[in-house]
Amino acid sequence: MSGETSPTGKHSGDGSSPELRASHADRDRVVDVLRIAAGDGLLTAAELDERLETALSARTLSELTTLTADLPGAAEAEAKDVVRIQQVHSGAIERVGRWVVPRKLELSVYWCDVTLDFTEAVITHDTLRIEMDTAGKTLTLITRPGIVIDADDLQLVFSKIKYRKAPPSPDVPVALRVQLAGTKTHGRVVVKPRRRTFGQWLTRRQALKA
């Protein structure tokens, strides 16, 4: 019967289809994309706040789509919930530069060096859990201020952990808590801040002399 109204308020007889509703997962996904874009300098703080407010109250997928339509590579920037790395007797595994930190990282790695450099990583969650089933070689975590490593749930078997903390930065809030869990057999776990550049070293030396 023409003139009937759909749940979206559109008339079913005009040939238009009702808009698809957005789920909580859809909203969370867009929120992650917006935060990554802000971290890349594509959105100002005010723009981020405005779009986040709209995303959290969005009722349809089309409303969400408009929030990321002007962001290049938005689909590729979404953070994954779980990433699994599985390798045996291969070359070094590295995550460096602007890589997107997932919620959970599963490492099933044997006799391969692994480096996770968080200094330029895109952080969209406040916690990263690394489930380890590893043997041999070294797992290296390179941190920056605001990143905390928790190894309480990690079992070391014929292994050792070396945790070199950066100078305390009381003004920097905790942005990411990395939880190490599982088992490391043989080899080492090394946690350290990124080595200072010559310019940073010179600036610090001049400051100490002042």
How does this structure look, described?
It is a single chain. The termini are far apart. Helix 1 packs antiparallel against helix 2 (45-57) and helix 1 (24-39) runs parallel beside helix 3 (61-68). This protein is α/β, with parallel strands linked by helices and 210 residues long. The chain has a 5-stranded parallel β-sheet with strand order 1-3-5-9-7, with no helix packed on it. A 5-stranded parallel β-sheet has the order 2-4-6-10-8, with no helix packed on it. 23% of the residues lie in helices and 32% in strands. The chain contains 4 helices and 10 strands.
Write the layout of secondary structure elements.
Layout: H1 24-39, H2 45-57, H3 61-68, E1 82-88, E2 93-95, E3 104-110, E4 114-117, E5 127-135, E6 138-143, E7 147-157, E8 160-163, E9 176-185, E10 188-193, H4 198-209
Parallel strand pairs: 1-3, 2-4, 3-5, 4-6, 5-9, 6-10, 7-9, 8-10
Helix pairs in contact: 1-2, 1-3
Estimate percent helicity.
10-25%
Strand content: 25-35%
Q: How many domains make up the coordinates?
A: 2
Q: Radius of gyration over alpha carbons? A: 23 Å
So what's the oligomer here? single chain
**Alpha-beta classification:** alpha/beta
Helix tally equals 4
Order of helices and strands: HHHEEEEEEEEEEH
Instruction: Quote the distance from N terminus to C terminus.
Output: 84 Å
Would you report the number of β strands? 10
Major β-sheet strand ordering: 1-3-5-9-7
**What integer is the average pLDDT?**
82
